[in-house]
Specification:
Layout lengths: L2 H18 L17 H18 L7 H7 L8 H14 L6 H5 L6 H17 L2 E2 L12 E2 L2 E10 L2 E8 L4 E9 L17 E11 L2 E11 L6 H10 L6 H14 L9 H7 L3 H21 L12 E3 L5 E3 L26 H17 L14 H5 L7 H10 L11 H11 L2 H7 L6 H5 L3 H27 L6 H29 L1 H11 L6 H31 L1 H4 L9 H39 L6 H32 L4 H43 L5
Parallel strand pairs: 1-6
Antiparallel strand pairs: 2-3, 3-4, 4-5, 5-7, 6-7, 8-9
InterPro entries: Kinase-like_dom_sf (IPR011009), Prot_kinase_dom (IPR000719)
Keywords: ATP-binding, Kinase, Membrane, Nucleotide-binding, Serine/threonine-protein kinase, Transferase, Transmembrane, Transmembrane helix
Protein name: Serine/threonine protein kinase
Length: 696
């Protein structure tokens, strides 16, 4: 393989790793064994690896680590190239002075300073020189490749114009600003992040001298900002729902002289939403964008209304931002105000929570003096139709303690997506007066009854069936021994089964109790609890059926030593009766337990952390198994009647009443099971939707 193919393959593997959030490729797997090109290829591979590792938060690797592992790059000029590459990568993602950086590389500090100075000089030599200050730039002027059409306003980042890029014949937003610095949002490609196409250095006249600046041109997003939406929210009723957002977008487009967007599927979807659902929809998309940026090395600290742009269709996009210490202070997390270290995503989750609450109510939920949390007055401003799920999600965002917030934008997006599904959010956050909410505390007795009642009914039928057809033909000694042996087998077998079921239900029993008392659990414990809860109904049914079959197969052993001869006909009767009763004890607890679990218990865990595709897969499996067990429930009366026809006429005459009762009761029970199946099917589909949402 040619060395260029190796570099291309390594680059492609890194891109897939960033896109899918997978483990990065191992550099050592791509380095050629020897040859004249080894050092050059190794240097290129290290550049790629270094750049991408600093794009992934927490994965940055210094050149000193590569130098220790690969002595070939431990000396100039290769070392100088790599150190300059590291400085560019690190300074683009966090504040870093050159002198502070060079303390790690004193042996090449002089060469690095000279190299960076030469690069800066070349950049200045290629800079665009303006003949007027930024404040004097106006629509109608042509600057470089851009015809300025409309003044879009000035902000903390500079002055922005709608312009036509002549070389590409497209509309772009052009921003002129003073000051140096890299644009941290430029490399991001996400549907809810405004795309930055490119930038150029500027030299701007300033009094008797000059100043440096930047020209940045990016995707034009015509629907205004969240600031404009807030103005509409404060003057228009939230009862207008999603139409309020569309009205704000249309008003801003009209102000800019844009033609109002034609109705589309997206606008129709937004118009049909309530105002809380509209806020959740906006928040979900922004949270996805924040998480995407963080996974690609750009960590947001604050999101303000000016940072959120809207397309003509009403879709939100994160615009450019700056992390200066004053701007956006009301939206900063408490730990981020004056913090020396860069906070993690929880700071941005807090900021998003403040912004979404402000959109929801028209006012920010906290003051700088309060230090976090929701002020009581803010709760009174909530819309009447605000679902409890959205209140819970935003309240978690606004926790003053970072450890109690959603840990990432991805988890916040999942929770907000849940708020957009009426059935799913009602399952996870039922009304305070809901019967389901009260039944959550009674999970042990309710699950016990769901398992015990079908087993007791099956036992009554089995005892009567055995007495009529089997015990009546045995001697008194055999009957007495059968009773004792059956009691021993049932006590041991079903006692062991009970221990197994308690073990399977340990997370289902204890984790909800801990959560209700304000406890916290690791993501792995919550994942285990979700898994055990959704599997418990099936596990319980299988354990119970196994105990029934164990009891049935013990018949010859129990009466061994008596004078009675066991015929194959008698043994078949005994096992068949236990199999039929085991089927009753298998099918009906499956539906009763799973209906209660899906409707009351499983949603508890969805309110406390990450929701994964694995959860959705388990729900789909449960839904498919439910269809299979529904067929089994329908077959019970048919099996009972068909089995009765195989009996001898004299035997059938003895149990005809029992068979009729079983058949009629099974038909009635099937109707109830079918209704449970339909309700559970709808619940499972709703939970699947929020655990495997469609891409936005």
């Amino acid at each position: 393989m040619h060395w260029s193919d190796t570099i291309a393959r390594f680059t492609a593997d890194w891109r897939r790793s960033l896109h899918d959030d997978r483990t990065p490729p191992e550099l050592a797997d791509y380095i050629p064994d020897g040859g004249a090109a080894r050092v050059a290829v190794l240097a290129d591979l290290i550049r790629i690896d270094l750049r991408h590792r600093w794009e992934r938060a927490g994965d940055g690797r210094p050149v000193s680590a590569y130098r220790a592992e690969y002595p070939e790059v431990a000396s100039p000029p290769v070392l100088v190239d790599l150190v300059c590459e590291e400085f560019a990568a690190r300074s683009g993602h966090a504040p870093l002075t050159l002198e502070e950086f060079l303390t790690d590389y004193p042996d090449v500090a002089t060469e690095v300073r000279e190299r960076l100075a030469d690069e800066a000089q070349r950049a200045d030599d290629n800079a665009l020189i303006l003949d007027r200050p930024v404040d004097d730039i106006a629509p109608g002027q042509r600057i470089d490749d851009f015809d300025l059409l409309t003044d879009l306003g000035a902000g903390h980042l500079g002055r922005t114009f709608l312009a036509r890029q002549l070389s590409m014949q497209r509309l772009v937003a052009v921003r002129f600003s003073t000051g140096r610095g890299g644009d941290r949002i430029a490399p991001l490609d996400h549907p809810h992040i405004a795309r930055v196409f490119d930038q150029r250095n500027l030299i701007v006249p300033a009094g008797a001298g000059t100043r440096f600046g930047r020209l940045v041109y990016s995707q034009y997003v015509p629907g205004g900002t969240a600031r404009d939406l807030l103005d509409q929210r404060r003057t228009g009723p939230e009862s207008d729902g999603g139409a309020l957002l569309l009205r704000a977008v249309d008003a801003e487009m009209e102000r800019r002289g844009e033609i109002r967007s034609a109705d589309s599927r997206v606008r129709a979807e937004i118009a049909a939403l309530t105002w809380p659902e509209t806020v959740a929809r906006v928040g979900r998309r922004l949270a996805e964008a924040v998480d995407y940026a963080d996974r690609h090395g750009v960590r947001y600290r604050v999101v303000t209304p000016d940072d959120v742009l809207f397309s003509a269709a009403g879709e939100p996009k994160l615009g450019e931002f700056a992390d200066d210490g004053v701007r956006g202070l009301p939206y900063r997390a408490p730990e981020d105000r004056g913090a020396a270290n860069t906070p993690d995503q929880r700071a941005c989750v807090y900021s998003l929570g403040v912004l979404l609450w402000e959109l929801l109510t028209g006012e920010r939920p906290v003051t700088l003096e309060s230090g976090g949390g929701i002020a009581p007055d803010s709760l009174r401003r909530l819309p009447a139709d605000c679902p409890p799920a959205l209140l819970r999600v935003l309240s978690t965002c606004l926790e003053s303690e970072p450890g109690r917030r959603w840990s990432s934008g991805a988890i916040l997006a999942e929770q907000l997506d849940l708020c957009l599904d009426p059935r799913a959010r009602d399952l996870v956050d039922p009304p305070t007066d809901s019967l389901r909410l009260r039944l959550r505390r009674w999970r042990i007795p309710l699950i016990t009854l769901a398992v015990l009642v079908p087993n007791m009914l099956a036992s009554i039928y089995n005892i009567d069936y055995t007495r009529q057809l089997i015990s009546s033909q045995l001697s008194e000694q055999a009957v007495q021994q059968l009773r004792i042996g059956t009691a021993v087998v049932n006590t041991v077998g079903f006692g062991f089964g009970t221990v197994v079921l308690v073990w399977f239900a340990r997370h289902l029993i204890f984790v909800p109790y801990g959560l209700r008392r304000g406890g916290t659990y690791s993501a792995e414990t919550l994942r285990r609890a979700r898994t055990d809860t959704i599997r418990f109904g099936g596990r319980a049914s299988i354990v119970i059926f196994a105990m029934w079959m164990l009891a049935g197969s013990s018949f010859p052993i129990v009466i061994r030593g008596t004078s009675d001869a066991i015929t194959a006909y008698d043994y078949t009767h005994f096992v068949a009766a236990h199999a039929l009763c085991g089927a009753i004890a298998l099918v009906y607890p499956f539906f009763l337990v799973n209906f209660y679990v899906v409707r009351c218990l499983y949603p508890i865990f969805l309110a406390h952390g990450e929701i994964s595709d694995e959860d959705a897969a388990r729900l789909r499996k449960l839904r498919r198994r439910s269809g299979i067990w529904l067929i089994a429930a329908a077959s019970i009366p048919l099996t009972a009647v068909a089995g009765a026809t195989l009996l001898a006429p004299t035997d059938l005459e003895q149990i005809i009443i029992e068979v009729r009762v079983l058949a009629i009761a099974s038909v009635i029970a099937f109707v109830g099971v079918y209704l449970l199946f339909l309700a559970m099917e709808n619940d499972l589909r709703a939970l699947e939707r929020v655990q495997a949402p469609t891409p936005t």
